[in-house]
Structure formats: C-alpha cells, structure tokens
Amino acid sequence: MEKLRRVLTGQDDEEQVLTAQVLDASTLSFGTRVRWFAICFVAGIVCSFLGTALLWLPKGIKLFAVFYTLGNIAALASTCFLMGPLKQLKAMFEPKRLIATVVMLLCLILTLCAVFWVQSVVYSFCKGCCD
Predict the structure, then answer these.
(1) Cα–Cα dist 70/45, whole Å
(2) How far is residue 95 from each of residues 13, 36, 116, measured CA to CA in Å?
(3) According to DSSP H, which parts of 60-118 are helical?
(4) What is the pLDDT of residues 46-92, one digit of tens each?
(5) Residues 83, 12: Cα–Cα separation, whole Å
(6) Which among 98, 97, 88, 100 is positioned nearest to 40, based on CA atoms?
(7) What letter does residue 118 receive in the DSSP assignment?
(8) CA 115 to CA 75: how far, in whole Å?
(9) pTM greater than 0.90 (yes/no)
(10) What is the distance, to the nearest Å, from the Cα of residue 70 to the centroid of all Cα atoms in its chain?
(11) CA distance 84 to 12
C-alpha cells in the first residue's frame, strides 16, 4: 500500500512523512480512500455509458442528459476521496484551470437545461406556430 501511496502522491520521503501524518489524522484510511475513489469512478463511467446506451430509446435524450451528467459528477467527485474536497476545489479553481473548470461546469448545467427547459419551450413554440 505504501508503494501505491508514493506513486499516487509523487512525493519524496520528507513529504511522504507529512502526507502520512495528515492521512493518519483524517477519518478515512488511505486504503478506504482508494477503494471509494475506484467505486465512485467506476460508477461514473457506468452512468456515462448507460446514458449513451439509453440515448436510442424513446425519450432517451432526457435519460442521456441525466445519466451522462451524473456520471461526470461522480467521476469528478471520485478524486475528492484521494485529494480531499477542499484541495480538489482549490486545484480546480487555480488561475490556470479556472476557464476549463467554468466551461465544464457550465456545460453540465446547460446540458440539463437544454433537455428539460429548452426542449419544452421549443416544443410549445412549434406547436403554437402549427395551430
């Protein structure tokens, strides 16, 4: 387990001692963190693929949007188990990653808005024009 910890953190011995102290003080052990990371990441991938597979069903576009968004959120949240939520958020909103983070989160929100709100507005508009 110690080799896996060194590989994932990429730190030398002094930093490794500090990391070990921090992990010992936290409520989850390193093994538990890795297990939950794997579970959450796999669940995210499964949701994304399930959403893509459901795309071909009637009303599948809504199912796609929900499952694909949930899959992306689960995969993103999985790294919180390795880094911790605050460190994850600080890393996401660093100046060099800020644009990518905002675009990704905006796309997740707009995907759901497009399916549930815009689709009904466009449908109502088209129905009103045809009558």
Answers:
(1) 10
(2) 29, 29, 32
(3) 60-83, 85-92, 98-113
(4) 999 999 999 888 888 889 999 999 999 999 999 988 888 888 889 99
(5) 17
(6) 88
(7) I
(8) 22
(9) no
(10) 7
(11) 20
